[in-house]
């Protein structure tokens, strides 16, 4: 009776078509959908003779058939077809959680036939169980009704086939009989699957960790036993009592792609107990307590009440820059700007003459001097001038030896591309001192303005960490910027990088290539560096290795090529937070002034952070090619945890004091393998920001 009411309701809403006439017909239906219906729908959609109403009607019909195909694929246990449909359509387009005329959902059929792969695929796509099954009794009654009615229908059709003479109607009856016999067997298999199922075992590997001063994170795995029905959801409970009386809260997790949950809004310093239980069509299984059995929300800063290092720094710097600009508005260098309206005619004629000045155009060849080049790229294309050259402008034709101080100053200016005009006005007033450094930097600002004007864009991107030089005395400062939108530039056009490299005619010898030839040959490496330097780490706690190398005019830091904006590192764990208890243990280790033991002692073997550090140190030493026995003299930086936002944090591993920075001429016995860079420290600091 209940099943009949459901069927009447569904038929009234016209949500689902009647069942297929035979198993073969069902197979043909969902196999032919990707061919027949797709072609018809596409052709109608692109045609101009079909009205918009007809197109929408046809689209709905197409999705309607796709939903039917999903049901048939699940019933026939065709995993490949199920995955294909889930990939091709969204859950809404498939009508994934709307019951069919029998009151069933695709997930119901999968779990009651105990088809674990299909059930998991449906669960990850967001499938739900039928809301009609509010209890075990209602599910059992519904299945019994489906089996009884299918059996009754089989008997009726069998009697008709036996009693009727062979004709066309009889042949159709035989097809219906085969289809109902197949459905009768399906319902019996679903009923048997439900009756033999039992509640799931407790989840395995329930781990509790401190996520912040007000939250805990619990991760868990599926029950180890595979004899019960498919688990469709989990429940996380927490309480201040180990008996969970009273409980403080619970959360049901039905999105099973990632089995973890963060409990928010907890009190710092309060111990919380957590447990997790699993659910299947037979109900909730027993709970599994977490390991450790409780945790206390906290953060390492609570150990000594330390405030975040960068709190308010950005705002303070913005305020300071605003004050500097206010002072310079009344500077003598701004006086000519006030008389600009009176001298408009003179300035216009001067600007027109400037258009024909050689310095106002991109350069084709280099002389002995200092130059600026801007590389803009999009996918495999690069911006070039109409002469198929990378845009280059002159900075100083008398400057043949770039001082590191000037180059590092230029990299800092790259953080203020929008303020170049203001910086030029401020530097102009100091030219009377005839300082060579100021004159060079003023020419740098002029070249930047010229490049911005010729390209019609202010942001020239990121400065490459070292200039390109040749033996003829040419020096190129290179900026790199990836264009992700359809941006308009002036005086340039897009060409494929490979075409530019193959078509360029070199004017230098292979033994002594010019700076432009060197740039073009290595352009892919520079683009790869630029892309990698903008990548972010996945959330977690990392162990970083600090190694410096000093020279006469700079200090360099060891970084990996694959991520040059971060120190050499390995991941310790996915949880970035260091709790107060963990930080207290690290402080105790540091105050003991003893090296970390190679093998864990008995009292440390139960410390999860110690075990994680043991594994991370071994992995990091292998990464940077340092024998593990040398690690006994290394130290953990115990002054602070380096926080990069809220999702990434670092613990630093330091060599002995004498080996942190290798002096000029000092031999480093342990040279890292390939895949590392020695980056200027100031460049690294800008990239890390």
TrEMBL record:
It holds the Pfam family fn3. GO terms for cellular component: spindle. Residues 202-299 form the Fibronectin type-III domain. CDD domains: FN3. Residues 1-25 are annotated as: Disordered. InterPro entries: ANKFN1, Ankyrin_rpt, Ankyrin_rpt-contain_sf, FN3_dom, FN3_sf, Ig-like_fold. PROSITE patterns: ANK_REP_REGION, ANK_REPEAT, FN3. SUPFAM superfamilies: Ankyrin repeat, Fibronectin type III. ANK repeats lie at residues 102-127. One of its GO terms (biological process) is establishment of mitotic spindle orientation. PANTHER family: ANKYRIN REPEAT AND FIBRONECTIN TYPE-III DOMAIN-CONTAINING PROTEIN 1-LIKE, WIDE AWAKE. This is ANKF1 protein. It comes from Dasyornis broadbenti. The gene is Ankfn1.
């Amino acid at each position: 009776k209940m099943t009949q009411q459901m069927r009447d309701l569904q038929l009234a809403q016209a949500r689902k078509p009647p069942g297929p006439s035979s198993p073969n017909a069902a197979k043909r239906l969902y196999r032919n959908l990707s061919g027949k219906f797709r072609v018809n729908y596409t052709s109608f959609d692109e045609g101009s003779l079909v009205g918009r109403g007809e197109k929408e009607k046809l689209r709905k019909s197409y999705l309607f058939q796709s939903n039917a195909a999903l049901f048939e694929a699940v019933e026939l246990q065709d995993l490949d077809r199920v995955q294909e449909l889930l990939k091709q359509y969204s859950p809404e387009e498939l009508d994934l959680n709307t019951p069919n005329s029998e009151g069933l959902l695709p997930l119901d059929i999968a779990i009651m036939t105990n088809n674990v792969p299909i059930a998991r695929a449906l669960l990850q796509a967001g499938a739900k169980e039928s809301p009609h099954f509010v209890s075990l009794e209602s599910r059992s009654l519904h299945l019994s009704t489906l089996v009884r009615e299918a059996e009754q229908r089989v008997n009726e059709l069998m009697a008709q086939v036996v009693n009727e003479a062979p004709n066309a109607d009889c042949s159709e009856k035989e097809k219906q009989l085969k289809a109902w016999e197949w459905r009768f067997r399906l319902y019996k298999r679903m009923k048997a699957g439900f009756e033999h199922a039992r509640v799931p075992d407790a989840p395995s590997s329930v781990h509790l960790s401190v996520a912040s001063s007000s939250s805990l994170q619990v991760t868990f795995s599926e029950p180890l036993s595979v004899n019960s029905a498919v688990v469709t959801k989990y429940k996380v409970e927490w309480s201040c009592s180990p008996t969970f009386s009273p409980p403080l809260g619970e959360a049901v997790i039905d999105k099973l792609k990632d089995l973890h949950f963060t409990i928010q809004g907890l009190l710092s310093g309060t111990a919380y107990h957590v447990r997790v239980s699993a659910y299947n069509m037979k109900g909730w299984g027993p709970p599994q307590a977490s390991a450790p059995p409780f945790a206390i929300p906290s953060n390492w800063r609570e150990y000594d009440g330390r405030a975040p290092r960068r709190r308010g720094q950005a705002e303070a710097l913005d305020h300071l820059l605003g004050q500097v600009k206010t002072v310079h508005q009344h500077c003598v260098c701004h006086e000519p700007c006030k008389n600009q309206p009176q001298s408009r005619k003179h300035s216009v004629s001067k600007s027109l003459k400037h258009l024909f000045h050689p310095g106002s155009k991109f350069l084709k060849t280099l002389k002995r001097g200092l130059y600026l080049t801007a590389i803009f790229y999009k996918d495999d294309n690069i911006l070039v001038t109409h002469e198929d050259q990378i845009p280059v402008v002159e900075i100083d034709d008398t400057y043949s030896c770039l001082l590191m101080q000037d180059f590092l100053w230029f990299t800092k200016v790259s953080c203020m591309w929008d303020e170049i005009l203001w910086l030029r006005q401020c530097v102009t007033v100091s030219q009377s001192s005839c300082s060579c450094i100021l004159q060079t930097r003023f020419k740098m600002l002029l070249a930047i303005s010229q490049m911005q004007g010729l390209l019609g864009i202010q942001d020239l991107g990121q400065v490459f960490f070292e200039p390109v030089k040749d033996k003829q005395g040419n020096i190129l400062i290179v900026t790199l910027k990836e264009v992700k939108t359809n941006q308009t530039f002036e005086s340039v056009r897009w060409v494929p990088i490979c075409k530019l490299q193959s078509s360029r005619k070199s004017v230098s010898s292979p033994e002594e290539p010019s700076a432009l030839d060197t740039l073009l040959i290595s352009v892919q490496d520079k683009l790869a560096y630029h892309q990698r330097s903008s990548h972010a780490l996945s959330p977690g706690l990392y162990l970083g290795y600090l190694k410096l190398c000093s020279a006469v005019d700079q200090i360099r830091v060891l970084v990996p090529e694959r991520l040059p904006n971060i120190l050499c590192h390995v991941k310790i764990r996915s949880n970035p937070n260091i709790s107060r208890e963990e930080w207290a243990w690290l402080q105790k280790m540091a105050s003991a002034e003893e090296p970390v033991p190679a093998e864990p002692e008995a009292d440390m073997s139960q410390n999860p952070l110690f075990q994680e550090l043991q594994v991370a140190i071994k992995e990091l030493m292998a990464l940077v090619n340092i024998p593990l026995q040398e690690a006994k003299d290394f130290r953990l930086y115990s002054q602070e945890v380096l926080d990069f936002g809220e999702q990434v944090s670092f613990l630093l591993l330091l060599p002995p004091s004498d080996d942190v920075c290798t002096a000029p001429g000092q031999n480093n016995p342990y040279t890292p393998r390939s895949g590392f860079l020695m980056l200027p420290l100031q460049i690294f600091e800008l990239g890390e920001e």
